[in-house]
Write a structure and sequence with these properties.
By secondary structure, the protein is mainly alpha-helical. It has helices at residues 21-36, 55-67, 83-95, 106-118, 186-196, 209-222, 252-257, 262-271, 284-290, 305-318, 321-332, 342-355, 362-369, 382-387, 390-403, 411-424, 429-441, 449-456, 458-466, and strands spanning 8-11, 40-45, 77-78, 99-102, 144-147, 154-159, 163-168, 176-178, 201-205, 228-232, 235-236, 301-302. Among the domains are: 82-187, Glutamyl-tRNA Synthetase, domain 3, CATH 3.90.800; 247-370, Rossmann fold (3-Layer(aba) Sandwich); 382-466, Arc Repressor Mutant, subunit A (Orthogonal Bundle). The radius of gyration is 31 Å and the shape is elongated. Monomer.
């Protein structure tokens, strides 16, 4: 690459209604590479399939990228709006004799395919109209425009991930660039767009590798310099098979719903197939500083949901308490028996430092915080029930009298009161804390008991203890 050349990468999704995790990773790599090089990262929506490309499907992509913090430069380009330009290039190739009109009828193409199949050859176009004069076609017959593929030699790509990849030109046929209805084919549109958008590096899944050889034909015929290519290995499931529904979440929205933080998902996706020494957790700034294509491995990556959960837990602990509180309140809203008003919010916020230490996902965080919004009488799980023996209920009643006079009612003073109470009754602190936790939370797990008591507030603590006094 010339030192003066500005790197421009692109993400070119087809709006299918979801943003697949493999595509999201391609977007991340394009973004990081552009930022690493001080270049630009642009977005092109490949919306030529008009039925699928609804506004909703496009929004899924915008929302997903924004959620992951992958900001693109400039306005997104819509491929469908560029059809005229695609046609223009096809006609130029035709005028220059680098492409030709093919008048084959659907029946003829079918016969061609069947003949190839019968001979055990791949179904390639046989060049029927390559050297024929269009005047041989019936007047007014519809035609497609096909590119003249080189027949001899080989095409070579110096792929920035895969290394040198070669394909014999004989493997490629004269593909259609403009259909008989005047619409461009996918291969053609991609090349014209990448060229016009001055893309220097095409970073995409290696399922596009064969397309690249086809696309190169158009670059050559137009005399355009091709971009550099980097084909990323695909993401497989934990068992090595192609990632599918049965493995678990696949789309960005699903990961979001399952309670993953975008920065954790990005960190995980980056590390999946790209390495920099042993570093596991890298901030976005570090990612930009360190990312390079030479660090991308060649073999398929296996999705490891447990590892993702681990990375997520690390990020949760670092995340801002207000942000987590907002997320938890959203997840709790509409949950039966859980109040999500301002009082609950304040309790969740107060206890967040302790809560976030114990959760691996935002869903778990919300589950663990839900008790803060419940009202008496609480329901108790089996372990909590076990703690609430008649003796312990009496003990809690006595404790309530001590807690009633703690002032100020904060974690520090609550802690001191609990210790004094335990000592006075010759109990280990845990023998006080566990029944207390059970009566307050309905479960036997929570953040530190002092912080939990303080977060609930005196009135609520006394009410929850009071509710089991005569039961
Ligand atoms: N639109 C293609 C896809 O979603 C990507 C094409 C490309 O990156 O060149 O798979």
């Amino acid at each position: 690459m010339e030192p003066s050349m500005t790197v421009r990468t692109r993400f070119a999704p087809s709006p299918t209604g979801l943003l697949h995790i493999g595509n999201a990773r391609a977007a991340l790599f394009n973004f990081l590479y552009a930022r690493h090089c001080g270049g630009q990262f642009v977005l092109r929506i490949e919306d030529t399939d008009k039925e699928r490309s609804t506004q909703k499907a496009v929004d899924v992509i915008f929302d997903g990228l924004k959620w992951m913090g992958l900001t693109w430069d400039g306005e997104p380009v819509f491929q469908s709006a560029r059809e005229e330009r695609h046609r223009e290039v096809a006609l130029q190739l035709l005028a220059e004799g680098k492409a030709y009109k093919c008048f084959c009828t659907p029946e003829e193409l079918k016969e061609m395919r069947e003949a190839a199949q019968a001979e055990g050859r791949p179904p390639r176009y046989n060049g029927m109209w390559r050297d024929r004069d269009p005047s041989e076609a019936p007047a007014g017959a519809p035609y497609a425009i096909r590119i003249k593929a080189p027949r001899e030699g080989e095409a070579v790509i110096e792929d920035l991930v895969q290394g040198e990849v070669r394909v014999a030109n004989a493997e490629l046929d004269d593909m259609i660039i403009l259909r008989s209805d005047g619409t461009p084919t996918y291969q053609h549109a991609v090349v014209v767009d990448d060229h016009d958008m001055e893309i220097t590096h095409v970073i995409r899944g290696d399922d596009h590798l064969t397309n690249t050889f086809r696309q190169l034909m158009i670059y050559r015929a137009m005399g355009w310099e091709a971009p550099r290519f980097a084909h990323l290995p695909l993401i497989h499931g934990p068992d090595g098979a192609k990632l599918s529904k049965r493995h678990g979440a696949q789309s960005v929205v699903e990961f979001r719903e399952m309670g993953y933080l975008p920065e954790a998902l990005c960190n995980y996706l980056l590390r999946l197939g790209w390495g920099h020494g042993d570093a596991e957790i890298l901030s976005r700034d570090e990612q930009i500083r360190l990312f390079d294509l030479s660090g991308v491995g060649r073999s398929a990556s296996r999705m490891d949901y447990t590892k993702l959960e681990h990375v997520n837990a690390v990020y949760l602990r670092e995340a801002d308490d207000d942000r987590l509180t907002n997320d938890v309140m959203e997840r709790l809203s509409g949950r039966e028996g859980v109040d999500t008003g301002e009082i609950t919010r304040a309790r969740v916020r107060a206890l967040m430092p302790g809560l976030k230490e114990r959760a691996r996902t935002l869903v778990e965080l919300a589950d663990n915080a839900a008790f803060l919004g419940r009202q008496v009488p609480l329901s108790f799980d089996a372990k909590a029930e076990k703690q609430l023996t008649p003796e312990n209920r009496v003990m809690l009643g006595e404790l309530a009298r001590d807690l009633a006079v703690v002032d100020p009612f904060d974690a520090e003073h609550v802690d001191a009161a609990l210790r004094v109470f335990a000592e006075k009754h010759e109990l280990k602190l845990g023998k006080v804390a566990q029944p207390l936790r059970a009566v307050l939370c309905g479960t036997t797990t929570s953040p530190g008991i002092d912080a939990t008591v303080a977060a609930l507030g005196r009135d609520e603590v006394l009410a929850r203890i009071g509710a089991v006094q005569n039961g």
